[in-house]
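User: Show me sequence and structure for the first protein, then do the same for the second.

Assistant: Starting with the first protein.
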Amino acid sequence: MKVVLHSVENTGEEGHPPLPIAYLCSYIRKYAPEIEIKAIDHAKEPIREILKLNPDVVGISSMSLPFYKAREIAQKIKKINPKTLVVLGGHHISNLPQTLPEEFDIGVIGEGEETFKEILQNFLQDGNIKNLKKIKGICFHHNGQIKINPPRPLIENLDDIPIPARDVFDMEGYYLQPRRSGTMQTISRGTHMITSKGCPFNCVFCASPRKRIRFFSAERVVEEMNLLYTKYNVQEIAIVDDLFVVDINRLKKILELMKTKPFYKKVSFFCETRTDIFNEEMAIILKEMNVKTMAFGFESGSEEELKYLKRNTTTVKDNNRACKICKKYGFAIDGYFIIGSPIQTREDLAKTIKFIKDNKINYISIATATPFPGSDWWEYAKKLGLVDDFMDFKEFDTQARNSYFFINQNFSKEEYERIIRYMKKFEENFNFNISIAFKDLFSLFLIKRAIKNPKRAWTYIKHSLFKKK
């Protein structure tokens, strides 16, 4: 049986392949090796590439913004070959399982590895999808209705999930091309990884399912780091789970294991965490790990707005303290902020700008308030008549990408649009300055990459000249 996976949520940003697809591939390879599984990624014509492989099953992963693209792909596949089993996974269907479109046979709700394996084995054994009622964690069509099965228990031991199969992607030719990534301080080969699943917090803007936190073991984490160094020759790794540092004993063990590996002090790291749990003990360990950049969801410089956004779990004092620790130990700071929340005022916005300047943050990312399915803001926007569960998500994509969602109570729409333009310009001016980094521009590493791939030479040079602060 041939299975092809495709992720429409992948933005195509170099260095960041869609890991959920890679996890599915590695899981099926280990626990259902009789099934042939491949991935179509970064394709100009994904439908054509998928159909060329003549798959029995197509798995499509999608978040909400590009969900209409997932539907278009499924519709065309079903039109050409109605017998192909088309399975939908990802955040969107996990949050809105009652909306499963007819072009998808099955939707996977939540954690997908074991569920998807069971679907494939069921299909392989019976040659049909008649026995779906026994599979936990799915939604499907039955007699003109959408049936939602009981949830599947979470995988307790994350080490049972193999290291993601990045070999299904064009890592060398596309994702590992030199650029400023990860620490954002030098041109390098970099990629990302996660060391945990789930989050017990409940921020009002977050669309991820609220799940109990589970960790990969220290041994498993370091094994993957070492693989990225030895197999892919990475120079930087971004650790992108929010709670990497929360278990201090695991963090200490990761450091001790790193010291026994060849990548120790040769690979630089980018790390995300929360300001309310970050402390000097963690900073000392991270410094020894060769972490160069710390990223925090500061969200706002206003105490009142921050309490609303993070449900009283974080304070501006926490944010200021985290910045001071980073400066003390020499970490660059990457800060995430939100504008346009329902309660935001002009004073809140002014406090946020002041916070950014006072704390000498190195890089900022400003997001506009968007009501994603699964978040509190989705329900709030539904009450305002801005969205609904069965809406055309092409419209949702257009609104979100162009910042036209308007859920704020204190600005007029015209004023909010002016604020967006101002803040985006502020972000652009704050993050970038033009400098000629001779060390990068004439480095042997860069010259070798340019010679090997002349068509991308200008990209390499551009990333050297346009250097982030």
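Switching to the second protein now.
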Amino acid sequence: MKIGLIGAQNSHSRHFCEVINKKRPWDDVTISYLYGEDDPAEAKRLCGDFGITACSDEDEVIQKSDAVIVTYRKGSAHYQPVMKALRAGKPVFNDKPFATDIGEAKEIIDLASERGIMLNGGSSLKGLSGLAAVKENITPGSTAVITFSADPESEYDGYWFYGCHAVEVCLTLFGLDYVSAQSFRNNNAVVTNIAYQDRLCVIATTPQLNKLAVSVSNSGKTVCYDIPMDYESAGPEEFVNMVKTGELPRSYEFYLKAVELTGKIIETAGL
């Protein structure tokens, strides 16, 4: 399987290349083509380091590849190449943020569903191995606090760029059936209360945080978890396994809810 990579500036581009082309967990899978005009210097380095062929545009990558990874830093730039790849019948990994517009997210999901094309993506943090133990401790009555980095002033679509990480961790731990979300901003810190029917998740983000931590409180007892950031292989493994098995790792509704919830945070915090 020859994979095409669209986007070079994002550090995830190198992560995918390191896992797939250098570690070689699959003998029959290689990132073979790259379009990286978002960072031509890094694109040249990636091609040299990992034996990848540079392409002149997104269309060439899509045409030559069996599957496509879209990893532009700006989520607002994902829609067009993702839709082109899906229309060409190619499985797609749509990196985080999945979208910055709920209408575009729905169009992506609808096209993949109608044509039966494999699609996944978003934040790789939802695949962190340390989250399983946290999820087991979340029961009716639980309150959890998730802390991670996000900058509402980021040049890459503001809060969307990193805020989506904590949002997808929340949905992974608590489920998709949240009832309401209300956010508050203090300087560049953003705090969000996400209410479920019988549980509460609080997301607190600041630009300075570089570790993911989750605390879970039940009946007066609080357990704190520092989550190991072993995310580099999570996205590549999930994508390749999806394409090979033809089985989606989660429902498409997850991605819609992630975009919806991130949008609510931005709206209610006035970001």
